[in-house]
Here is the input.
Amino acid sequence: MPRTVLRIGTRSSALALAQAEMVRKAINAVLSKRTFELVPVVTSGDEAPEFRRAGIKGLFVSDIQQALVNGKIDLAVHSAKDLPAETPEGVALAAITPREDPRDALLTRQGAGLERLEPGTTFGTSSLRRSSQLLAMGRGFVPKPIRGNVDTRLRKLTEGEVGALVVALAGLRRLGKDQRVVQVFSPEVMMPAPGQGALAVECRASDKEMRAALGEIEEPAARRAYEAERALMVALGGDCSLPLGALATITGNSIRLRGMVATLDGKHVLRDEQTGEDPIAVAQALAERMRAAGAADIVAASREKI
Here is the structure.
């Protein structure tokens, strides 16, 4: 780290910048003699979000990772749920910071809770994971693809383009926009995405000083939960574009890992859970049981229709 001013790469959305600013403050407290600046990077996912439905991996992170490898930035901050399964050569996942609430939240135009919503209510979401679980409720809800940042989505809700929104509670809280939340979904109703609510910080693998500094802002429990959730996703052959969810909760040394896969129409949903102490072993055991119950066929069927 020869430079005095170190550059933190991030997506250019308001949420991404807010998250990167949280990391900037945390790492600056460790490296107080350094100055850090945020460097917004426009990613392929930002330029062509429709590609996400095609299952192209790493859309929101690969350009930032490449900037890190090329020396254009010194740190990279991502929403952990966007990370592909494999880390590029020369890049180190140096920290998973303390995790915000990973659950999904419901916002409605009239402030009604889920039980008061009528059949035919449109739910703004571009997540296949969320739309599959909405359809699985059997309430006649209608998922409607919606694009844009948090402010854009809130405006579309207010203007009546959709009757409800399902978004990550973590993002709303980090932006101070959680006042309109009318309900927080339990994982039994709406399983979150693997890594949801967690922030991942990468640096160059050769930068030993930065890796050590980032180790001081990592939350070990958040890292263990992230590793379990991502390992389950990989073992089931899924990625962040498929209707697959996972949530690991840590109590002492014990890990409770819950998983979900669904078909796009929500007619087939498989949920299961496993407990243990080793994140990878727990994930592998749960994946094996879920595969035996038909998870591979569900994932394959969903992938074919994307």
Summary: The radius of gyration is 19 Å.
